[in-house]
Amino acid sequence: MKYELLIFDWDGTLCDSTGRIVDSMRSAAHETGLRVVHDSEIQNIIGLGLPEAIRTVWPEILDDQLPPMKAAYARHFVSDSPVMMSLFDGAAELLDRYSGTRRLAVATGKSRKGLDRILTDLSMHSVFDITRCADETRSKPDPCMLFEILSELNVSPERALMVGDTTFDLEMASAAGMHSVGMSHGAHDEARLLACEPRVICHSIQELTNWIETNG
User: 54-69: per-residue pLDDT in tens?
Assistant: First the structure.
């Protein structure tokens, strides 16, 4: 089957940003006076919308603590974190390979402001036919953002493929009736991804490219 539409998560799938997210969330929590948590607790919620992610890690957070926590996280992620991030090796080449021959989309837990910022920095707005962010629809694993993408592009679920590095991505795809590919180089480990029954687990962007050429 040749998939007409390839939908990518951003953080941990195309962009090697897991470490930056963990560092920024940890720094923001310290600044806001929230309790210290293990890095793995933060890594586990990558992919959710920011409010959902914060409330999952710190369920005791008060309503008036949430806005400053969100603001602190955004500031650290944009400029204050020392942890570098970049596209995974081969990601730009993969997108260039299929731009114009397939439809490309992003479905991400990032905010619209955050995704637009990085797409502008990388001059990548024109690469994607459509993008959806958690703050303009429902957070993963709710399939709403996938349904919106499919509807706007008039593509049926069986003609689309979701590529992501977390169970939230793969569960979202399953709920939308779509096939998925798990990427093991991001936030969730291979065992967790396998439990969601993706078509395959890929360990690098090059492996993903090879799989799409052969199977998708």
Answer: 999 999 999 999 999 9
